[in-house]
Fold this sequence. Notes:
mainly alpha; single chain
Amino acid sequence: MNKFKEFLKRKDIEFSAKRYGIDALGAMAQGLFASLLIGTILSTIGKQFSIDFLVEIGDFASAVKGSAMAIAIGYALKAPPLVLFSLATVGYASDTLGGAGGPLAVLLITIVAAELGKMVSKETKLDILVTPIVTIVSGCVLSMLCAPYIGKAASAVGNAIMWATELQPFFMGIIISAIVGIALTLPISSAAICAALGLTGLAGGAALAGCCAQMVGFAVMSFRENKWGGLVSQGLGTSMLQMGNIVKNPRIWIPPTLASMITGPIATCIFKLEMNGAAVSSGMGTCGLVGQIGVYTGWANDIASGAKEAITAFDWLGLILISFILPAILSVVFCEILRKIGWIKENDLKLEV
């Protein structure tokens, strides 16, 4: 047993929630962002302004999302070069066979294939053959055996959440908005979770509301401590920057979370805000305005399919209120109340520069 532990340590294989649930999941979201999301943005711009080459570039970027996710996961798992490069095939296979639940299939199967590849890496004189073969064959066999079922399971969970949201938009709006928003601020990937479960429709709109509440909420309520730099880095970057402060004083998390529990049901019940673009956009909030671009992409797709006649002023009002105005106002109001009762003190929200 000790020899095996030494072997795992030498190969930098660590069976932990952090390595797989935080590092790998977060990296997967970055891979998805650098392929599908960027591709969707470029394609949308190209279609709206009739720039054909941008549409083509966007299609190229979106087509390699499985490979991009797998390589990103391998990088997070500290895979050696031959393993890392071989994961492109594994990602393509698992994403293709996983269907709607492709991202979850990519995550689970890539982790296994990467660790197996790391185990044999540089253990033989035929490393140039052995390592890619083990990585690719193990990943592809697992994809053929498991990816369709992983995809169906993820789709079933996602569909159940979306069905429940359609049935009970008020309560599910509160729950989804709060949970996904909290996930966005935690060192895990809300975008990857939404992508893995295929959260779109009203559920996707609630998820977007929760993410915006966290990002815009923290950005605005910490303005007195962090000024414009903090406003931009949190509002267009990530509220995860506040995790260190949350550990010191968890009460600072109350205002944006309460805000999300209000904006979520407003999004689902009043504005009927739906995310019919890429599911990953549901978990992006205001990061690079990807969430808002995702909603707009969904509108454009619905118009093209005939499901929607036109984008109305009410649509834009809902998106702006849910994404920016309500999170800012509500979070500041709640924060000021907590400051007055002493739960939040000066510099509790200050970011380390």
